What we know:
- By secondary structure, this protein is an alpha+beta fold.
- It has helices spanning about 25-35, 50-60, 70-85, 90-105, 130-145, 180-200; strands spanning about 1-5, 10-15, 110-115, 115-120, 150-155, 165.
- A hairpin with a 2-residue loop joins β3 and β4.
Amino acid sequence: xxxxxxxxxxxxxxxxxxxxxxxxxxxxxxxxxxxxxxxxxxxxxxxxxxxxxxxxxxxxxxxxxxxxxxxxxxxxxxxxxxxxxxxxxxxxxxxxxxxxxxxxxxxxxxxxxxxxxxxxxxxxxxxxxxxxxxxxxxxxxxxxxxxxxxxxxxxxxxxxxxxxxxxxxxxxxxxxxxxxxxxxxxxxxxxxxxxxxxxxxx
Length: 202
């Protein structure tokens, strides 16, 4: 299913394949969720309008729009809600959080004829910038919950709170990055060596 989000100036923002867990919307969603990391200094990676503008530009979501402080606040709120979906203790809780996010975004399907033909859009035509991002990320997350819910994970490495989408074939990945995987493996190796060195001689 191809969905399009359109800017107020009638410029197409993004085209994403919500049937794929590797699409642009999912990458946007994950990077936004991980944009506050208490293990980093400073922990906030989207502190102001300039940082948010650069983030959205990198994800081809900014277009000709100007980021306002209210957009920064709303994206921080979206980030927290995405994290609550990933970290939910059960499916019912995750679905409740996600449905609340979608309702709050005011997702409004509408169809328009463009040079590419008839296309469906989901952000209201007069929606502010952050609200359009919420529609895009929220719908991407909804499709993930529908088809790939077991791929939405929180890193299992001690001290890491990053979320990620498990793209492994057997859905067995536990770490958000090679760095975390290596850190856990090194710690486990050191622990084994300490245990061996303190074990009583036979």
